[in-house]
Design goal:
By secondary structure, the chain is mostly beta strands. The protein has 1 helix and 7 strands.
Length: about 100
């Protein structure tokens, strides 16, 4: 099994794409993705069987849920519990790590 190191800093500088999600690792059956979003809103969706973790590296992510809007600034972590309808929204540019169940 090969170990890999990723330069996440270099991924942040590709400002030509409004949405990019790169799987950088798999940990205990969970995908770890580096994601950038710029001036966009993801579609509403639900993960019925798994939580989804967001760690914001830069910018601010607004997580819309049926319970309201949660503002997640850089350096903060937010967990969307299984069964929660949600969508991520970014005004400007943000980068984050997203951890969720593969499948």
């Amino acid at each position: 099994m090969m170990l890999a190191a990723y330069d996440l800093e270099s991924f942040q500088h590709d400002e030509t794409i409004a949405w990019k999600s790169i799987e950088v690792a798999t940990v205990n059956g969970n995908a770890v993705r580096y994601r950038t979003m710029q001036d966009m809103t993801a579609s509403w969706h639900v993960h019925d069987d798994s939580d989804e973790l967001f760690y914001v590296i830069s910018g601010t992510v607004h997580m819309d849920t049926e319970q309201g809007v949660h503002e997640i600034p850089a350096g903060h972590l937010f967990v969307v519990r299984a069964g929660t309808r949600h969508r991520a929204r970014v005004e400007g540019r943000a980068s984050m790590l997203v951890v969720d169940c593969i499948g």
